[in-house]
Design goal:
heterodimer; A: 122 residues; mainly beta; 7-stranded mixed β-sheet; 4-stranded antiparallel β-sheet; 11 strands; 52% strand; globular; B: mainly beta; 6-stranded mixed β-sheet; 3-stranded antiparallel β-sheet; 0% helix
């Protein structure tokens, strides 16, 4: 079955750029049936949807991130990536990648990666 | 887009049934019967329990059921078991953002 795994630095300095990659295994990465999303969760808090990218590379972002987020995908490596610029302590969270079942319309997140903790600190 | 409103905590004894509510607006829960529900144990990734309002993924116990009335979606856990103790989150498609999560509910099995 499909599995997702996040990777990237666990510590980022304030004002710098956070970069994470999600590697997808087990098939379906090149299917038009799915989008691919990033979701984060600060310690002890709830989930926040960040953005999604389609098989064709079209993206949708959460406006709350105010233009700081960029998603991309590398089909040859079965990976999609997140770049978040000008980070602050408020961006400290566990970051999850997830498959979106249902394409561009109403979909749902399944499965999820195990999550990776990113701390923003000098 | 504001988070959907869930009770902070719900508790029940083993074997009992509990219901977790998820209240939104005409722009999300009220517009789309497409709420999904996730279970999250401490230190673990969320797990899909209900999708499209009331559908269960393969492998999820039929003790979990979903419904909606107006602007409020609900997750019912019947025959409560100790392993059901976890945090639960709802999520709605909004057509705008396009996804918004609930504030989360901690379920305690007494």
């Amino acid at each position: 079955q499909v599995q997702l795994q996040e990777s990237g630095p666990g510590l980022v300095k304030p004002s710098q750029t956070l970069s994470l990659t999600c590697t997808v295994s087990g098939g379906s990465f090149n299917s038009d049936l799915y989008f691919w999303s990033w979701i984060r969760q600060p310690a002890g808090k709830g989930l926040e949807w960040l953005g999604r990218i389609s098989n064709g590379g079209s993206t949708t972002y959460n406006p709350s991130l105010k233009g700081r987020l960029t998603l991309s995908k590398d089909t040859s490596k079965n990976q999609f990536s997140l770049i978040l610029s000008s980070v602050t302590a408020a961006d400290t969270a566990v970051y999850y990648c997830a498959r979106v079942v249902g394409g561009p319309g109403p979909g749902y997140f399944d499965p999820w990666g195990q999550g990776t903790l990113v701390t923003v600190s000098s | 887009q504001s988070a959907l409103t869930q009770p902070a905590s719900v508790s029940g004894s083993p074997g009992q049934s509990i219901t977790i509510s998820c209240t939104g607006t005409s722009g999300d829960v009220g517009a789309f019967d497409l709420v999904s529900w996730f279970q999250q144990h401490p230190g673990k990734a969320p797990k899909l329990m209900i999708y499209q309002g009331s559908k269960r993924p393969s492998g999820v116990s039929d003790r979990f059921s979903g419904s909606r009335s107006g602007y409020t979606a609900s997750l019912t856990i019947s025959g409560l078991q100790t392993e059901d103790e976890a945090d639960y989150y709802c999520c709605s498609y909004t057509g705008g953002v396009p996804y918004v999560f609930g504030t989360g509910t901690k379920v305690t099995v007494l």
